[in-house]
Amino acid sequence: MSLDADTRPSPALPESVVQWAEEREATLTTVAGSFECPTTGAQLIHPALLTTLIYRYGRPGAVGDGRVIANGQCMVFRKDDAIGMRFMERVRGELIEDVALARSLVQEGRNVVLVDGARLLRVRMFEDFPSTVRGWGRSISLAGIERSISLAGIESRTRLLGQLVAVACSQVLPIVFIISGSAPVMGSLLLAIRIGTLVGAASSYPQRKWSFWLSPVADVLAWSIVARGVIRVWPFAVESLTALTHMETFATFHLMSWRSRLVALARLGLDRRILKKADGIVFWRLLGTGKGSTTSPSADLSRTAAFIVWRDESAYRSFLATSDVARRWSSSRLVKESWSTRLRTTGGHGSWQGFKPYEHLSRGNQDGVVAIITRANIRVKSWRVFARAGVEVDRQLQEAPGLIAVCGVGEAPIGRQGTFSLWRSLDDARQFAFQTSRHRHVIDETHQGRWYAEELFARFEPYDAEGRWDGRNPLETNRSA
């Protein structure tokens, strides 16, 4: 059994799922759980977003057109099958391994099933309305290329448009007809169907608040989120989005020390518009940095950073060759030094504004040097205690065996903080994370005190590093050592 970090399984889950799998003679069994939405805002928007999935893909189980839905948050399979059918070899290099595995098994005629485990598996969702819209809203809008997807193939443009129309008819038209009074009978009928869907989904929310029953008022917003997702993936869907899962998608991290603080601050603001329109960028963030190697709250106004996920090699090469942003990052007239590295994923958990890098990048080798990105959206009430805890953790980090280089990064001066670090090995990074007393204590405090509205911990294999970071290329220095 494999479980995502945000799941909360019942002790009875393993035995029950094994029984279900044996009854259905399934090669791969996945489980749909229930949802923990702790605030009224989250329970207002989350059911509306979930309903878009129901209308697009159906409820757990086989879908009428022969497609199968899978949920990678909980999967069960036989060890002998995993070895004999070479599960790991099947998904080597895939962006979304659980989905790729399920699809390959279905294509061979193997039995892949999704069972309703709402009473046995809970999934902790985002805490409030805004984070649900940003986080799960993005995942749900791109469900054709993320967790719960059609295994017959990633959506074509025709299917994407069909789904958009289906959601509009089911969740938008009832409100439009009733408010406008243009078709009251049809509006009432569609609304009755919508309420029936809501009642059916109630079992997926064991801790329902009053806002759950008002979630249809958020249907128009939910539809707009789906529409935004269709627009975002449309460039990839030339005829089918299937090719996206086979691209050598990778990320890059860039660190620039500017000669002028004013130029650094200006580019931090102005380059956002250029990157937003750049072709071939899947995800990006421009970042400020802390002073030197410190990760406790501080600011170096002459240094900036960037994390970018690229669709493929040609997109990155085109950016380097034609973009004014890339030209400025390498200009000796504007920057004192710059450093960059490419990144392949080796795992992680959490998300960054709803984006999960470890689900989208090509797989790397976790033997050798490892790059780690941590990032958190810190709640306002927790900022002061976070800042105090960070000072002692940073002191221990600077002395940690195996640390090659580190810098603090942030999307805002307060509240959205992170780190980028290079370690000699994964064992060294784990030794610091889990054996250093103060850091281990802070990890426990963050969960008990719910410091973060969102957090990310992602590991990467760094390669093809270029330039200088504090006068050296840390990856070349480590190899020579």
What is the total tally of β strands?
17
Mean pLDDT, all residues: 81
Computed structural class: alpha+beta
| Ends apart, CA distance between termini | 41 Å
DSSP strand (E) fraction?
15-25%
Portion in helices = 40-55%
Major sheet, described briefly? 8 strands, antiparallel, barrel
Gyration radius (Cα, Å) is 23 Å
Query: Uncertain regions: pLDDT < 50 for 5+ in a row?
Result: 61-66, 142-155, 236-246
Q: Indicate the overall shape.
A: globular
Strand order of the largest sheet: 10-12-11-15-16-14-17-13
| Number of helices in the DSSP assignment | 19
List the helices and strands and how they pair.
Layout: E1 2-3, E2 7-9, H1 13-24, E3 28-32, E4 34-36, H2 40-57, E5 69-70, E6 74-76, H3 79-84, H4 87-90, H5 97-107, E7 112-116, E8 121-124, H6 129-134, H7 136-141, E9 149-150, H8 157-180, H9 184-201, H10 210-213, H11 219-233, E10 250-258, H12 261-277, E11 281-289, E12 300-310, H13 313-322, H14 324-329, E13 335-350, H15 357-360, E14 370-378, H16 383-398, E15 403-410, E16 416-423, H17 426-435, H18 437-448, E17 452-467, H19 474-480
Helix pairs in contact: 2-8, 2-11, 8-9, 8-11, 16-18
Brief summary:
With 481 residues, the chain is an alpha+beta fold. The chain has 19 helices and 17 strands.
Describe, in plain words, how this protein is organized in 3D.
The protein has helices at residues 13-24, 40-57, 79-84, 87-90, 97-107, 129-134, 136-141, 157-180, 184-201, 210-213, 219-233, 261-277, 313-322, 324-329, 357-360, 383-398, 426-435, 437-448, 474-480, and strands at 2-3, 7-9, 28-32, 34-36, 69-70, 74-76, 112-116, 121-124, 149-150, 250-258, 281-289, 300-310, 335-350, 370-378, 403-410, 416-423, 452-467. Helix 2 (40-57) crosses helix 8 (157-180). It is of the alpha+beta class and 481 residues long. The strands form four sheets. Strands 10-12-11-15-16-14-17-13 form an eight-stranded antiparallel beta barrel, surrounded by five helices. Strands 1-6-3-7 form a four-stranded mixed sheet. The chain is built from 19 helices and 17 strands.
